[in-house]
Amino acid sequence: MFQSQQNMCLPIVYLNGKTMPFEDAKISPLDRGFIFGDGVYEVIPYYQGRGLRAREHLVRLQQSMDELYMTNPYSIAEWEAIIHDLIKQNGGGNVAVYIQVTRGVAKREFAPPQGLTPTVFLMANLLPTPKPEIYANGISAVSIDDNRWLRCQIKSTALLGAVLLKHESLLEGADEAVLFREGYLTESTASNIAIVKNGVILCVPTDNLLLAGITYVLMMELAKKAGMPLEVRRVLRREVKSADEIWILSSTKEVVPIVKLDGKPVGHGAKAGLPGEKFKQMLQLFQDYKRDLPAVQAALAAS
Ligand SMILES: Cc1ncc(COP(=O)(O)O)c(C=O)c1O
């Protein structure tokens, strides 16, 4: 399998009803996605054609479009057929499928015109699963005030707030940002956050201040099934600062431990600054879950 120009994505992409080489995919500069960030997106992991919670991602895509008063051009079954075809044309393997739907092309004015044809773009990337050393050593993060907009439940392509926060965390020499709004934990720039305190996994309730991550929900289900104590409630900044463990979760990262926060090791005693025991248990639960992913879906089997 080779990658397209400058390794930007796998060679075949989907644009507005057709698959084509990446180099042939052309979009108007008047596309409202380009002009206003007026669009939504999803990133769905596929393992050998098997989607990890693909339906849930497609349902969230619908919810994001509903929030933007956009009409979804495809049914879930149609999306699945497009995705499976794209994966097949790129030679299969473990890939992250990126879907972007924008409101379409129009004269530049704020009011969204009625009846535009949405622009639909899909590409696939090799799944950037974290390297073993990330799981073994963890990552670092800094606390930053969450100054994004108040509609973070929408998976919108307008991501400048998150881009700047990520940039600021890198400028501070950390790998990621742990975000707080009015003293309470929200999430990270492109992942959710859970902490472990006194043996209990603490998860933040999902509202307009953060994205309801598919991985976050899956983690809660896995924890409950395995009998790991878990609580969903608001989490104070000082609770994060004194947490035994901090995890970030997303579809491409799954679960990764933050071992250093604001320059200080996370956790206590001899184990401070090391990935925790609950993290290791959760990582194993994810690996077991992935091994048992439902069989390849009909669209793929039939192709
Ligand atoms: C802001 C934000 N929060 C959380 C997540 C994690 O969501 P998911 O688990 O569905 O990938 C993402 C993923 O991109 C994100 O951008």
Determine the oligomeric state from the structure: single chain
Number of helices: 9
Strand tally is 15
Overall spatial form? globular
Q: Residue ranges: pLDDT <50 for 5 or more in a row?
A: 296-303
The whole-angstrom Rg is 20 Å
Structural class: alpha+beta
Care to describe what's here?
This protein has 303 residues and is of the alpha+beta class. The protein contains 9 helices and 15 strands. It has helices spanning 32-36, 54-67, 76-89, 132-137, 160-171, 214-225, 237-241, 277-291, 298-302; strands at residues 12-15, 18-21, 39-47, 50-51, 94-102, 119-126, 139-145, 176-181, 184-185, 192-197, 200-203, 230-232, 245-250, 254-261, 264-265. Strand 13 and strand 14 form a beta hairpin. The longest helix has 15 residues, at 277-291. It is globular, with a radius of gyration of 20 Å. 37% of the residues are buried. Bound molecules: pyridoxal-5'-phosphate (PLP).
